[in-house]
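// run 5 | inverse folding | seed 20
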């Protein structure tokens, strides 16, 4: 970047643009028309649901790891 020049930025999306959301599974949800606070709330709810699911998976992994550790400890005493 040359001295005295500001970096170029991408133009921000304006309200009313069509926003495409692509998940890692390849599913696509398209919000058509105006992107409203209701649309944002729906997406926030989806994020919260995914976060809850991830926390449950983490807890299940911890439970299985503890169970395996207990089994290994029992086998070590035999």
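// decoded
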């Amino acid at each position: 970047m040359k001295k005295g020049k500001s970096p170029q930025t991408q133009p921000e999306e304006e309200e009313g643009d069509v926003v495409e959301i692509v998940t890692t599974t390849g599913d696509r949800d398209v919000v058509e028309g105006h992107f409203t606070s209701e649309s944002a709330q729906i997406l926030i709810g989806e994020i919260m649901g995914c976060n809850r699911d991830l926390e449950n998976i983490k807890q299940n992994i911890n439970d299985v790891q503890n169970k395996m550790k207990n089994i290994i400890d029992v086998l070590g005493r035999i």
